[in-house]
Amino acid sequence: EVQLLESGGGLVQPGGSLRLSCAASGFTFSSHAMNWVRQAPGKGLEWVSTITSSGGSTYYADSVKGRFAISRDNSRNTLYLQMNGLRVEDTAVYYCANGWGNLAYWGQGTLVTVSS
Amino acid sequence: EIVLTQSPATLSMSPGERATLSCGASQSVSSTSLAWYQQKPGLAPRLLIYDASSRATGIPDRFSGSGSGTDFTLTISRLEPEDFAVYYCQQYGRSPWTFGQGTKVEIK
Question: In terms of Cα–Cα distance, which of B95, B105, B104 is closest to B27?
Fold first, then answer.
């Protein structure tokens, strides 16, 4: 059974940093692209970032480019999102999901709240 | 970026009825690179349809997708009680990948 378990969310002040993690199991992690998608409270879905299976290529939404960094450790079956320079508008539930393009499996999400 | 517009915003239906959800793209979506997701309150989205018309693993055949270019449709042939949820379309043919704003299917 595919499982994706996010962690690392919490309350942070504007300008602060957080690192999210996503622990994967039930599939060959190193063979799949991985993604972060977020959902602000009461709003729709927004793609944030994608990393290829090897980690050799990364892609970002303009809204987070230069502030967020996606990475992965294939030896630990774990995906990361380093978030710096957080803004109030980054407040959202952050989901990790696997797949290139269509997102086949999703974690339960972790809530990031940016507030003073 | 490709903007996806879903209609209607809300669909009030009764169990057993046929539901038709639309997703329009501001530019042609290449290679039918369009997916549909279902999301229930407090839960993560679930992939229903990919490549415009292929059902994801475990998805009942009452869900079907069609369309190409700029116009796509998700059809639920006979609504079951568990189908009342929000549905999102997503294009992955051109970066950045984008989602529609969602259609809520509610019980009439």
Answer: B95
Secondary-structure breakdown of chain B: helix, strand, coil percentages, each rounded to the nearest 5: 5, 55, 40
Cβ-defined contact of A103 to B56 (cutoff 8 Å): no
Per-residue pLDDT tens over the stretch B42-100: 999 999 999 999 999 999 999 999 999 999 999 999 999 999 999 999 999 998 999 99
Structure tokens at B44: 């993560």
Q: Do A61 and B96 touch (CB under 8 A)?
A: yes
Q: Given B33, B92, B99, which is nearest A44 (Cβ)?
A: B99
β-bridge partners, A106: A97
In the numeric block, the tokens 């994967």 are attached to A24
Structure tokens at A75: 């030896």
Chain A residue nearest residue B44, CA to CA: A108
